[in-house]
Amino acid sequence: MKAFNRAQSVVLSIAGILCLCTSGFAESLISIGKPVPTIIPKAIAMGHATPYQVLHLAISLKPRDIAGLQAYADSVSDPSNTNYRNFITPTEVGQRFGATAADVSNVVSYLKSNGFQIKLVAENHFNIIAEAYVSQAEKAFGVTISRFHAVEADAPGYLDFVSNTSKLKMPSSVAANIVDISGVDTFTKAKPRILTPTQTRVLYNTAPIYNKGLNGFGRTLAISSWDGFRLTNVPLYYKQYNLPTPAGGVGSNVTVIPLAGGSGA
Questions:
Q1: In 10 A of CB 164, how many CB atoms?
Q2: Residue 45 and residue 220: Cα distance in Å, rounded?
Q3: Could you tell me which of 90, 33, 94 has the C-alpha nearest to residue 68?
Q4: Exposure of 212 by Cβ count < 10 A (0-12 exposed, 13-18 middle, 19+ buried)?
Q5: CA 183/CA 131 separation, integer angstroms
Q6: pTM, entire model
Q7: CA-based angle 230:233:237, to the nearest 5?
Q8: pLDDT tens digits, 237-247
């Protein structure tokens, strides 16, 4: 009888341990982020990605008040609004509109628990920049990351790349704070594009006034550029779209003013 009681006690203890261990996994996993790249079915699988390959990841957090953020952006841009040009700092944006400090901490804690190195937590609480090995990302996001070779030479990305083969998944309490995660696949890359004059007018919503005959003659526009530019592109653009030439010649109406130590190029 005593032996039976001891055996029963051991079984109950093991059951209790199992219950405690599995309770951490009881939380449901939900899919997040964008779908698997559409290039995958058309690419050649080259096997599992190197476990210690470093991935550079950007995690986009869900704002707590997206409607309030939009209203604020509209108000500071409206000359008739009393809030016109009443700008706030990135920290204030985070305090008023970004993810809460608790939600940011929740995501950061989860990433760190999976070995991620946190490089930046944006002051506006919209983004987290992190680095992780392939093996760590696989564990954190519940996916397999493999190597691929794109067969199509004109594919809008790198011919050799790694990618997850299913949608990313995370515990629901963490995923609820995330809008998107980029960097798990290394396929996508920027492709140079040129906006036509018509596309530019539509993009910046100047088409309505342009169509009324207001073409900006006699006005001065200031353009901030943080990413570099080439003035040699100006005459090429005029030629490409047969634009009217200023009285002083192409580019004569462009003045470059470097600010805060900028190179002006």
A1: 23
A2: 54
A3: 94
A4: exposed
A5: 9
A6: 0.66
A7: 150
A8: 999 999 989 88
DSSP 110-147: HHHHTTPEEEEE-TTSSEEEEEEEHHHHHHHHT--EEE
Residue 239 corresponds to which tokens in the numbers above? Answer: 């030629």
DSSP 222: -
Of 183, 176, 174, 168, residue with least CA distance to 107: 174
Q: Which residue has the tokens 């900006």?
A: 216
Tokens of 194: 């040129």
pLDDT more than 70, % of the chain? 86
Strand 160-164, strand 145-150: pairing: antiparallel
Give SS3 for 56: strand
Q: Which residue's structure tokens are 């608790």?
A: 102
Residue 154 has which token pair? Answer: 């004109």
**Residue found under tokens 């009888």:** 1
Task: Give CA–CA dist 5/15, Å, rounded.
Answer: 15
Model confidence pLDDT, tens digit, residues 192-244: 778 899 999 998 888 888 888 887 788 888 887 766 788 888 999 999 999 98
Q: Give the DSSP letter string of 162-203.
A: EEESS-EEEEHHHHTTEEEEESS---B--------HHHHHHH
User: What confidence tens digit (pLDDT) does each residue in 36-92 have?
Assistant: 888 899 899 999 999 999 999 999 999 999 999 999 988 988 888 999 889 898 999
